[in-house]
Amino acid sequence: MSADLRWDELELVAEIVAGGTLSEAARRLGVDQTTAARRLGRIEARLGAALFDRIDRRLRPTPLLRTVLPQLSAMAAVAEEADSRLRRSRQEAAGSVRVSSLGLVHRLILAPALGDLTALHPEIEVALSIEDRSISFEEREADLAVRLGRGPEDNATIRRLGRLAFALYRPKIGARSGMAVAYGQDYAEMPEMIALTALRPDARIIARSNRLDVLAEAAASTGAEVMLPTLMGDTDARFSEVEGTRGSAFRDLYRLAHPERSKAPAVRAVARWIDATISRRLESS
Q1: Is the whole model's pTM more than 0.70, yes or no?
Q2: Percent of the chain with pLDDT over 70
Q3: Residues 6 or more apart from 110 whose CB is under 8 A from it?
Q4: Which domains are assigned to the chain?
């Protein structure tokens, strides 16, 4: 037989051998008999030989086909086992997985890519919770977390996903020089706050918050400048980037996992999706 037959064509031949009729093969494959007959006709035309003899209203393998029946049966068994393993894997990767992170990570990276996860694992339910504080894995406040920095969760498994770049932004409308919004004093040593001080040493701080979304709103309403992650600032039409400030600060982004729950198939599947999604997004920003 020709080596260029596709697997779906080999599968049809195997089902005809097993069922003995086109109607039975069509039923097993979930297609109508006319479609199965048309496919078989194309296969035989391409091979230039008949694969079945019509005897007593049943299809019997020709000598040509009988020579490869052992290999065909082996291929069918391998395919059935692979399909069975895939079904078991999809069934195991089910349930609810709690993911804690900053609002910008959920809003700009994970939520827009959630369709990729549900397409692969439709039985998984993801709970996206916005948390600025460190969470407790021992109390199972989350199964997975994405953080700017490693944090104090010493019992968590940790993976670095990449660097988040910052830049200085100003409102496109109503911008006022000499003013900025910033984190609270407890966060003055953060790289983006150190960069703000270096870029605008004489700026008057008119508002403080430890939440980036709050700082963005405050800057937009007052005309003040603000340090934002580039993936956040670039997508907010209200702001323009101050030239020469891109990459003036960076923060490492980490994915943390519950030490025991990370072994669950559903949690592993979501962790792989988070790692791939965030790494890809950071590389493009």
Answers
A1: no
A2: 87
A3: 99, 101, 128, 146, 274, 277, 278
A4: 7-92 (1.10.10.10), 94-285 (3.40.190.290)
